From TrEMBL:
Organism this protein belongs to: Funneliformis caledonium
GO CC annotations, alphabetized: cytoplasm
Record bears the keyword Glycosyltransferase: yes
EC number per UniProt: 2.4.2.9
One BP term from GO: uracil salvage
Pathway field: Pyrimidine metabolism; UMP biosynthesis via salvage pathway; UMP from uracil: step 1/1
Protein name, as recorded: uracil phosphoribosyltransferase
Length: 212
């Protein structure tokens, strides 16, 4: 699928290998997520459109100025998506942050929306959805559907550290126009909807809240 961009960056591969380790502490999990998020954001923003602005003066001469042409929105899916926000904002300090809360119901594995902080009307031109994992693809698909219903009809991109092949396929079937920038694709999705080897529960590992 041409809209799925699996990174071949050695730093991303190295950092995800460390991140998978169940023995690292939450502080290191957060640091690695930040670093991976920023590296993926660099790749995801490579084709952002720019426009000309008023020329400015360097120490030696005037020079042409370019600036981003679109208003960018960052949409972290609570709660693990928050781990990417600061990383991407360091690259896009003027981006708006629009929060969505969606969780996967344990028995049905279906997405459930519990929080939506989108304004009544779109105030951005394109969005980048932030979610460290795409497992079944249900949450990712629901998030994109919400954004399209809200009125985002142009570019929607997705940044994720680890995704299952099945989850990406499911997202693509519903939203073939969405570009996904992923650190690594795992082939196995178990009967409980967990990616193998994956990362485990990203939110629990980030916030040191192991499931009962």
């Amino acid at each position: 699928m041409s809209n799925i961009h699996a990174s071949n960056h050695p730093l991303i591969a190295h950092k995800i290998s460390i991140l998978r380790n169940k023995n690292i502490k939450p502080k290191q999990v957060r640091e690695l997520m930040h670093e991976i998020g920023q590296l993926l954001a660099y790749e995801a923003t490579a084709d952002l459109p720019v426009k000309s602005a008023e020329p400015q003066q360097s120490p030696l001469s005037t020079y042409p100025v370019v600036q981003l042409a679109h208003r960018i929105g960052l949409v972290p899916i609570l709660r693990s998506g928050l781990s990417f926000v600061n990383a991407v904002q360091e690259l896009l300090p003027t981006a708006r942050v629009l929060h969505l809360g969606i969780f996967r119901e344990k028995l049905s594995l279906q997405p459930v929306e519990y929080y939506n902080k989108l304004p009544s009307e779109p105030n951005v031109d394109q969005v980048i959805v932030l979610e460290p994992m795409i497992a079944t693809g249900g949450t990712a698909t629901a998030a994109v559907s919400i954004l399209k219903d809200w009125g985002i009809t142009s570019t929607i991109k997705f940044i994720t550290a680890v995704a299952s092949r099945q989850g990406l396929d499911n997202l693509h079937k519903k939203h073939p126009d969405v570009e996904v920038f992923v650190g690594v694709i795992d082939e196995i999705l178990d009967s409980n909807g967990y990616i193998v080897p994956g990362l485990g529960d990203a939110g629990d590992r980030l916030h040191d809240t192991p499931s009962a």
